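Repro case for the chain-ordering regression, as requested:
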Amino acid sequence: MSDRPPALVIGSTILAVMVAVSLLAPWIAPYAATEQHILKRLERPSPAYLLGTDQYGRDLLSRTLMGGRTALLLGVGAVLLGLAVGVPVGLAAGYFGGRADDAIMRIVDAMLSFPSLLLALLIITALGASTAHALAAIGIANVPGIARIVRGNTLALREAEFVLAARARGEGHVYVMFGEILPNVLPAIVVETTIRVGFAMLAAASLSFLGLGVQPPTADWGLMIREARQYVFLSPWPLVAPGVALSLTIIGLNLFGDGLRDRLGGGS
Amino acid sequence: MTPVPPVLDIYGLSVHFETRDGPLHVLRDVSLSVSPQETFGLAGESGSGKTTLGYAIMRALPGPARLTAGEIRFEGEDLLAKGPDELRRIRGRRIAMVYQDPRSALNPTMTVGQQVGEVLEIHDRAAPRAARARANELLDLVGIADPAGVARRYPHQLSGGMQQRVVIAMALACGPSLLIMDEPTTGLDVTTQARILELVADLKRRVRAAIVYISHDLAVIAQVSDRVGILYAGELVETAPAARLFRRPAHPYTLGLLGALPDLDGLHGLTPIPGSLPALTRLPHGCVFAPRCRFVEPACEAEIPPVARVTADHEAKCLRWPVVLDAPLAPSVPAAPRRRAESRGLMLIAERLVRHHGGAGPIARRLSLGPPPVRAVDGVSLEVQRDEVLALVGESGCGKSTLGRVIVRLLPPTAGAVRFLDRASGAEVTDDALVRRNAQIVFQHPDSSLNPMKRVGKTLGRPLALLGIKGGQRGRRLRELLRDVRLDASYVDRLPRELSGGEKQRVAIARALAMRPAFIVLDEPVSALDVSTQASIVRLLVDLRDTLGASYLLISHDLSLVRHVAHRVAVMYLGKLVEVGTVGEIFRPPSHPYTRALLAAVPRPDPTAPRAAVRLEGAVPSPQHPPSGCRFHTRCPVKVGRICEEVEPPFVRASDTHQIACHIPLDVLRREAPVLVAAPAAGGLGVAPPEEGRS
Amino acid sequence: MTLYVLRRLASIVVVLVLISVIIFVAIHVLPGSAATLILGEYATPDALRTLERQMGLDRPLLAQYGAWVGDVLTGRWGDSLAMKQPVASVVALRLKNSATLAAAALVIVGCVAIPLGTAAALARGSLLDLAIVTATYVGISVPEFVTGMGLLLVLAGPSVGWFPTGGYADLSTGALAWVRHLALPTATLAIVLMAHVVRQTRSGLADVLGAPYIRTARLKGASERRVIVRHALRNGLVPTITVLALDLGYLMGGIVVVEEVFAYPGMGRLIIYAVQNRDVPLLQMCVLIVAAVYTLANFAADLLYAWLDPRIRYR
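-- result from build under test --
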């Protein structure tokens, strides 16, 4: 595989840096994310403010660092929620088949008929805009995709001979699903998860950009870009700093996920 | 007379694969030559390098493969010196290839006629219409009825046998002088295979091409080849005319192979070759076969033996060939299992079992939308006695696997019942858990029969846990189980991907044994294994059965294996049983016409064995639309008349233990000539096995 | 084949029904009744009850759902609460605008992405392939609003001023103005979409090139050109063409954000407006329409695929 291994290496490097930096943010950020310096608004990068300041004089470097935490929280949290619901549902649908499977898959198909952002918007409408609701909305939007992949893998494994051997022994359904089938679906789940975290982050940032996710004054990349909009021609830095950070992180996640997929041979 | 120059002359060919762990020497110093219009059979087990050799000749080695030494001369021209354009002119026109899996070798979005005609468009610059016309002629040449109609169809609409005929037609289109056939009948049914082999024999007479026929199946090689070459772990260890090689081989590996092959006459075979294939990254220093050879001497391990000339056209890469020549074909220690004197009575009764699956739901069926169900098992009644091996034979699609799964309660029957009887009282056992514990199953594919994520210890520990065995006792039982299947205790910590096919199958057998069952269904337990491994697994199964005192239902398409191992045989066709009898009775007349055709179709590892020509026309009907009356009537060569089309034949008793379901009167069937004629004595006869094994 | 079509059609109908249920459930069943959404959290209980009775929100849920579906199917789409206009007319105009944007993006993507993906698959491992793959990674990872704002910054700023910063000019006001307003939003959408399509084309074609029947074609003596054109592309493009229809999903997600960035008056912006103003009738209809369009596009893609693949067309 001559054009692949670099992906894993580069991706994991980027990711490692971004994650480390985000987790350490409270300690390495020079200022508090919400600290305003009214006299130094929309400044260019300088030794005091390494990435410049935004329209309230807040240090962009600090806000970008802290924004990483929010992004990680939303991305990882949403996918975990999706897994928590999607994996059991997919396992059950694939394993039991029949009418239950049909019914579940119809609902999954219907949910997948919404572009996921719209589904999240619907849910935000009902719940109201906040970080927690954004996490829930994106998590729910991830459930059908995850369920479908898990179901696909389960279907393929259901007739595998080692599964049949277990059933011939008289093993119960729960054991067969979680003890025999799930360990073999895990590689696909892991690959899927890494890629989805990236898209979840993207979705969260989009929601925040639309004003429907993270609310001010929390530091979040999407929100920062929204706020930067009015002043973009006065100073590009409030756009550039979070924009580059967000893009880099997602690139890292995608590279990592693809590299992992080639290594593990997962996916549906 | 000047010697005729060979069509193909390979000298000192070596190929290796680049891998992460270093070069894999797949072929080493291979030399062979093929005369014009000669069929050269290249035989080898998996990993021997035979397919690589085929592609090397076509100069079509996959990416990481490198040809490191040697010459390939085709009709006197050096193939290795040719550039891509010249090669393109040769491929398809002067050298053509037939592939192992015809379904994937054909383009799914082009019609069959287009694909066959394309060869002519490429090499003869034929216009599409002319190419299409010639394609129809070629399809006719390969025995396809209604060639024009078939030409308009897409590959997925044809059966496996027809697809392979199409591939052969494609290969013959420009009249090549060399045809390379890579396992062309693997994956086809025995009867379909027989017809393709017949086609090849017919074509040999008509089309003047030399053939390199690659296969792992020695019996097939015996049937088609003029000369044979045996490949072992990348080296060509012996070449000889076919008759000579199968009679008096000069290399210990060939001798071992012939000893391991079960022969249909029940007299030879199933002697395993000790040891296993060497890893291609750690080859032995001297002779590659030395670690497993029973004639080995210190000189053999010192360096690679030179190719010795046994006679003018017989060569062997062995130092000890004179001894090997005179060694008898390993006497067949009988594999037929003994039955205990006190074994009597029935263990299991299946009554009118029916299993249908698929098919549309009730609403769709009412509206005549949607497909009819697959009638995999359509009314089968049989009995398995204590302590016996009952073989269930039939070709793919006959329902034998489904039947096995219904019996062990993996699938619920659509109708009918299976009753297990208690040994002491003879009453039916109704406790489901007890039944499941006593009825186990071993599957065909070692790669999927073990959970790839679990170590051997975990896999074997689970059934023990279900029995309530814990702690130290479990560890002991585990080691016992491994010992039973002849695996070292260290295997406990291994993952399936670290095991060979034979080792995986042993673990699968150990798992079935863990619960000490009284009855085991063996669903094609060795068909995915190499010949040398097959013999040792079969012997293991037979020995275990002796110790356990269990009954086996052996599901297999391999009649030779059945002959050696079973007590009774049931023959299945399209969901129904057509004949049941002891192993002696089945292999002799009176026989059901289908059984007869099966026996005639089995290739024998002896080129001189006479072959009865019983040909089955047509393809197996779909189990969704089984024919009315006798299901076999659409293909039966001795169909009586309308009664066969309208009335299902009853079972007629030929003896206490022998029943045949056919309208043809029994005495007519009795008078037919036996299909199996004893082959002229080979060098050394085996001890005749105990035939019926009646207690 | 007809059976296949009928079965898919039945399936689509079921999905559409489920979609309407999901929308209905999201708005009416999740915490916070529709009335609270509209009036806000500080409404008095009396006001809430009056509004509920007015909107028929006190009837049993099933009846409400039935009424809504009935209204939708008979064209009585109600009035937008915030805009005080019939939903139908508002939606019609915005739909046209979004469709224009989407169509422009799809055309560009179709013309550029498929050849690019094909080139990458054929030149696997080369520098060209590496460049294309890198570009696609960036394309799928950078969010649309970042790209959009970046384009705004660079091309629409006061210093450069080639393009307006947003809005829409109808064709009637002149072709140039129309193009200038469409350009940046289309470009933003097209970048992301192209990245997806190039990746899919590339991997689909790479899969085909590794298939056994390609080897058969080569060993028949076919020239590389024949192998690629007659065998590889024919099989590889069938899924790619249909994938374009499926990419409508990405398109619709992205369009919401892109319209927001460029203040483009399309369906996306309308939906955001409805969400922000808690305009329930408008929101319901908009989401239903978008989801329905997507479903129908999938259906069309399925049909196209079935028609092109002989394995489905001839059973």
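Ordering looks correct now. The mean pLDDT of chain A is 86.
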